[in-house]
Design brief:
By secondary structure, this protein is an alpha/beta fold. It has 13 helices and 14 strands. A hairpin with a 2-residue loop joins β7 and β8.
Length: about 375
Amino acid sequence: MKPHTLILALLLGTTALAADTYQPAKYDLSALPGYAPTQRVTGVLRIYGTPLEDLVGKWANAFRGHHGQVRLNAYLINTSQAFAGLVTGSADIGVMGHRQWRNGFQAFEAQFGYAPLEIRFGTGSYDDPAGTTPGLMFIVNKRNPLAGLTLEQIDGIYGAQRSGGWVNGRWSTAVARGPEKDIRTWDQLGVTGEWAGQPIHLYGSDVTLSNWADLIEREAFQGGTKWNPALVEEPRADIGTKAKGKTRDQQVLEAVEKDPYAIGFIFQRVINANHGDVRVLPLARNSGGPFVVPGAQTFFDGSYPLHNGAYIYLNRVPGQPLGVREKEFVKFILSREGQQIVAENRLFIPLNAEQVKAELAKLE
């Protein structure tokens, strides 16, 4: 294994061998619409953002098979360039491997006076070693009898009293909650026996600004940003000397393996690569259920609550049509052909037919 490959593998909590032997999931895309050009496209389409050269390149080549007179100019340096390109007028499309942070939305709106058009083009990965923007698994010690968690319970465990939260880029007091909803001991989750009255020991990583922190804040905290101060967390990129070179992911996994009163959030590919001896909890959106086991197919059908997404952003003036080049390119990405490229690329999970329909409706 090459040195730089080994370093990357350590940071991701996986190995090249795991990637070589992994069998990618198959997704049924037959219900997705095929791409049928509705307008002739010419000129230059400028795409800025996350370094997704292989994925965007394959989209571009296939798109030019339908529109031979269009040229694509890609500047895929880092994620920040997606909104920088849109705000400065240098880009027609900003592509991102995750949802934009709140400050990016605020910068765009300050410049133009309206929000950008957000189009989701894929779902974050589940356990694929080649994937990115993974969804989250909540794990407990294998002896812990807890059957599952609701999003409200995750808020109670990991969140804290708050005066409000950020909903669609706006501060809202509607999502405020008091300390009575805090969950700090296992019996508050209905766990009895030796767990009754015992404090919940929380583990995680990167809750200041990351895909997974943003995911929990949006879906479980309802836009809140206040975390339980008892959470033990560190940046994932740091390899602590006290842990003898172990990644933060491995530290979280081992902490839950050793501590019967612990809970942590982590990625499935980390559990697989390290043969984690823990229990992954099914999740439910509300107390009425159903509780959903995480998996490639429950990520694909959208039933597992804490899956991530990948997005395209465009500058469309409200009430005015989207440009022809942009609209046709996005339609291609959301077509069966475009989503098949997403599936074969393996960085993300493709969208299902219902999700594609919802995204296509935003173009009209």
